[in-house]
Write a structure and sequence with these properties.
It contains one helix and eight strands; from the N terminus they run H-E-E-E-E-E-E-E-E. It is mainly beta and 204 residues long. The chain has an eight-stranded antiparallel barrel with strand order 1-2-3-4-5-6-7-8.
Amino acid sequence: MFRLHGLLFGLVSIISATAGGAAHAADVFQPMDTYQRVDTFRDRFEFRFGVGMHGVGSVESGTVSLNPEIVFPQLRLGDWPIDPRWAFLIPRLHIGGMANLSGRTSYGYAGALWTLGVTERLFVEGFLGGALHDGSLTGNAAANQAALGCRLLFHVGGSVGYRITQQWSVMFTFDHLSNGNAVLDGCSRNQGLNEYLLRVGYSF
């Protein structure tokens, strides 16, 4: 009788262990949700601040600008799932400004920003939008200001960055202000402005 109880107890233990192991294995090998978001930085706000060379290649060169910027969470279409392989195609809104410290052209901008992760830490970005500046439309030799043609201009550029932690990142940014070679009506001049910036970002 004692032997029978021992055999039954052993059998129950083996079955329980096997079932538990199978359940654990099922949990481990359960396929990940196809649309689970792994790039959570796109779901957060980000504040960026940088300093750079202003007006490179123009009469405004040789001066320095400061660049504060806020990047908003990625635009979402309600509760629709997003395949992480194509999440970078959905832009984030960014708003910022370029404040020249020598009285040259300063401007504010807004537009769409796309971020693509190259590795877990390395990323590249592109942006496109518009900017409103306080510089000269026809050129001002006395003030060393470029002839920008229109008050409202295109704002384009890109960055190469590196994520130090989940919150902090650093990036090198090329920033260009132009009327698109007189694409905008009424812009007779198109000297444009180039900025080369080193920036730090903090996500929250």
